[in-house]
Amino acid sequence: MITTTPLVLLLLSAGALGQSCVGRCGVNDGVSSCQCNSVCSNFGDCCGDYEAVCLSCKDRCGESYLQSKPCQCNDKCGSYSNCCKDYDEVCGGGGQGVTDDDLHTITEEMFTAEVNSVYDQLTLDFQGKGNSGDLAPGPLFVSVPESALSGPTIAPLMKVQDNYIPSVSQAEEQDATEIAEQNAFLDAIMNTEVMKLAETFLHSKNLLTGSLRDKLDEMWFTLYKRKHDQSSSGFEHVFVGEQDGGVSGFHNWVNFQKEEAEGDLNYFSWMDSIKLGTKGELLMNRYNWEGHMKNIGSMFIGTSPELEMATYTVCFLARPDSLCPVQMSNQQFHVQTWTIFGNLVGSAYPDIP
Questions:
Q1: Which of 215, 237, 279, 292 is flagged as catalytic?
Q2: 3-state secondary structure at position 256
Q3: CA 165, CA 63: separation in Å to the nearest integer?
Q4: For residue 84, how many other CB atoms are within 10 A of its CB?
Q5: Of 44, 219, 327, 347, which has the highest C-beta tally within 10 A?
């Protein structure tokens, strides 16, 4: 039995109240008792881990530029003389050696290693094609057998997806059970060949130091503010979906079919698709979710959560805030990623040319 000491509880509490710079470099929220931006030294209010987190490139190689960060860790920092001191040592070029061919090769390798696809078990009906009106009288997912949702990574994914509140105006509250489900999901996907390939690639290109599991936990599951404090995370936005007048994010087929089956989602039409052999498909579509409209959405269909998360993560670290070249089943397309708060996932989704 693991006992949580008062000191550990104190540290956890401090982190929850904004006492750490993890995920906050360059941010000045005006609320937290300590800051993590380039002027905190002038005011003497830097967080205790400011130098270790914000003045180092550890786990920051290739991240997007943000002027308020005290130093940068991307391939442009040399031109502006604002690289962190350990940039060359840690990043070795920060990903500038990652070519389009490299990205095509690694994503094709990950796709080849995909063994948890259930695409061949799904029955789909795209129905009407267009960008106006409800052109689909029936559901998109005609049949999803229980066997398609009981696999070693999809089953734990669904448990985590069920832990979020769609509204960005309401804070998320995570209890011990939910944290345990999140950890079980990370353990499950890290045990796949897809994630092992991604980790090896990221290390070889100096885009990652330390373990990929720790990086996934940070960049995908750190709670942050969209409209309300701790109301969002990269995982919630991409793999669950959020509501703020309309639908934002929501790029995962597993949650799509669940919401459709429960009567909370009305599929309207499709605009484009790319078939990925027998393991999956890309789809651009339209739908209404609990009264909120998504006029242009995109998602993988039938693929495993590890393939989706590995692809998004590689692109996020190699080509942040831009279109990232991807190849699967000899089909080339792009993944678009967006950063938020410097090193956290704001969004990620497949883009059909």
A1: 237
A2: helix
A3: 28
A4: 22
A5: 219
Nearest 5°: CA angle at 248, between 134 and 174? 130
DSSP 330: T
Distance, CA of 223 to CA of 24 (rounded, Å): 11
d(CA 202, CA 209): 8
C-beta separation of 335 from 352 below 8 A:
no
Beta bridge partner(s), residue 252: 300
- Residues found in the chain: 353
Residue where the block lists tokens 């840690």: 90
Mark residue 189 as left, alpha or beta (left: phi above 0; alpha: psi -120 to 50; beta: remaining): alpha
Geometric angle at alpha carbon 307, from 149 and 287, rounded to 5°: 65
Question: Any catalytic annotation for residue 251?
Answer: yes
Report which residue type is found at 19.
Q
Burial class of residue 245 in the structure, from the number of CB atoms within 10 Å of its CB (0-12 exposed, 13-18 middle, 19+ buried): exposed
Among candidate residues 205, 215, 251, 258, the one labeled active-site is 251
Contact 297, 287 (CB under 8 A): yes
Taking the alpha carbons at both ends of the chain, their separation in whole angstroms is 53
Pairing of strands 141-143, 123-124: antiparallel
C-beta separation of 348 from 336 below 8 A = yes
pLDDT tens digits for range 205-246: 999 999 999 999 999 999 999 988 999 999 999 999 999 999
Partners of 193 in the β-ladder: none
Cα 71 → chain centroid? 24
Give the C-alpha distances (Å, rounded to integers) separating 101 from 105, 112, 157, 332, 334: 6, 16, 31, 11, 13
Q: Can you list the alpha helix ranges (DSSP code H) found in 205-347? A: 212-221, 234-235, 253-261, 305-318
**β-strands 265-276, 246-248 pairing:** unpaired
Percentage of the residues of the chain whose pLDDT score is greater than 70: 91
d(CA 55, CA 36): 10
Buried b (16+ CB within 10 A) or exposed e, 132-154: eeebbeebbbeebeeebbebebb
d(CA 32, CA 179): 24
Q: pLDDT digits over 318-333, tens only?
A: 999 999 999 999 999 9
